[in-house]
Amino acid sequence: MLKWAAVGKTAWETGQIMTVAASTVNHHLYNACAKLQVTNKTHAVAKAIRAQIITI
């Protein structure tokens, strides 16, 4: 989910790509933010890239 967010996809677009509901995407992004100890998805993406969790 973070990788799709990193390239600018919305929750709805990511849901369409992954065939899940937008609410599921948002739930996973919320969990990612909690695990990365950040407050929003932009910060989560930045931290994940810096930590080499995701690449774009």
Which features would summarize this protein structure in a list?
single chain, 56 residues, mainly alpha, Arc Repressor Mutant, subunit A, 4 helices, 68% helix, WH-like_DNA-bd_sf, transcription, Helix-turn-helix transcriptional regulator, transcription regulation
How would you characterize this protein structure?
InterPro entries: Sig_transdc_resp-reg_C-effctor, Tscrpt_reg_LuxR_C, WH-like_DNA-bd_sf. Keywords: DNA-binding, Transcription, Transcription regulation. This is Helix-turn-helix transcriptional regulator. Residues 1-52 form the HTH luxR-type domain. There is one protein chain. The protein is mainly α and 56 residues long. The chain has a single domain (2-50), classed as Winged helix-like DNA-binding domain superfamily/Winged helix DNA-binding domain (Arc Repressor Mutant, subunit A), CATH 1.10.10.10. It contains 4 helices and no strands. Helix 2 crosses helix 3 and helix 3 packs across helix 4. The model has no long low-confidence stretch (mean pLDDT 97).
Question: Quick recap of the structure?
Answer:
With 56 residues, this protein is mainly α.
Describe the protein's topology:
Blueprint: H1 2-6, H2 11-18, H3 22-36, H4 41-50
Helix pairs in contact: 2-3, 3-4
Domain HTH luxR-type: 1-52
Pfam families: GerE
Organism: Sulfitobacter profundi
